[in-house]
Amino acid sequence: MIVVTLLNQKGGVGKTSCTHHLSGTLATVHRKRVLIVDADPQASLTQGWWGPAATRGLDPTSTIASILAGDLPHPDQVIHETGMEGLSLVPGSRAASIYNNSDPLTASQEVQEALREFLDEVQDDFDLALIDCPPNLYLCSFAALAASDHLIVPVQPEDYGAQGIADVLDSLDMVRAAGYPVALLGYLLTMVQSRRALHQVYEANLREVYGDRVFAARMPEVPEFPEAIAQRKTIAQYKPKGAAAKAVKAIAVEMLERIAAAEFRAEGVAA
C-alpha cells in the first residue's frame, strides 16, 4: 500500500475536497482499493460522506482518535465502508483534538507512530491510502507524514493560498530528521479559475520557482465539486463525464505516474 498525505498549513485551499474526489476517481476509474483517513479533528472529510450530525454522533473509539490513542485498534473497529465500491474510510473525530499538540516532538514515539503502525497492519488490504490533515503542522499532521510515503501540497494560486508552502517544507524536514523518509510528490494547484489574471500570474510564478514539482494537472474551482459532496458523492459518481470529473482523472493519472517514477528511482538507488 502506498500512503499519500495531503497537507497545507493554510486552510480553505481545497485540500479536503481534493482528497474526497481524488479518492473516488482512484477507486472508480482506476479500480484501486483506497483507504481515506480523516486525520483532521474537524472531521470535514467525514462530514462530506455522512453529514455533520452522523459524524458528531460517532463513538470516538471507532475513529482516528482510537488510533492516535496508541491502542492499535482492530481494523474492523475503525475502518468503515463509504458505500462506494473500493473506497473505505477511517473517520475523523473531535476527540482527536486532545492529541493534536502544538509541538509534535514532545509526544511519545508511540503516539507519533500510531498511525504508521496501524497502516502497516492493513497494508495488504489496500492499494492506496490518502490522508487528509488539519490546516496546521501539529501532531495529527506529523503522525500523518510519519506514516506516509509521499506528500502532496495543495496550493491555491493566490497570496493566502501559497503562504503555507514554506511552513509545510519546514515540517517535512522535521519529520525526515526524526527518521521518517516521506518524499514530496509535488504541489497541486487547486481552486483554479483559469480566466482570472491573478491565477494565471501565480501559476506561472509557482511553475517558474518549483518547476516540475508542480503538477501539470490542476483542480478547477467549479460548482460541481461542492454539489457532489452535498449529495454525499464523489465527482466520479455525480457527473462522471463532466469537465470536473475529467480534471480529477488527470490528477489521478499524474499522481500514479509520479508515484511509479519515484518508486523506480528508489529501486535504482537501492540497486
Structure, explained:
This protein has about 270 residues and is of the alpha/beta class. Helix content is about 45%, strand content about 15%. It contains 14 helices and 7 strands. The chain has helices at about 15-30, 45-50, 50-55, 65-70, 75-80, 110, 115-120, 140-145, 160, 165-175, 195-210, 225-230, 235-240, 245-270; strands at about 1-5, 35-40, 80, 85-90, 130, 150-155, 185-190. A 7-stranded mixed β-sheet has the order 3-4-2-5-1-6-7, sandwiched between helices. Strand 3 (about 80) and strand 4 (about 85-90) form a beta hairpin. Helix 1 (about 15-30) crosses helix 14. The two termini are about 20 Å apart. The relative contact order is 0.19. The model has no long low-confidence stretch (mean pLDDT about 90).
Question: What is the gist of this entry?
Answer:
This protein has about 270 residues and is of the alpha/beta class. The chain has 14 helices and seven strands.
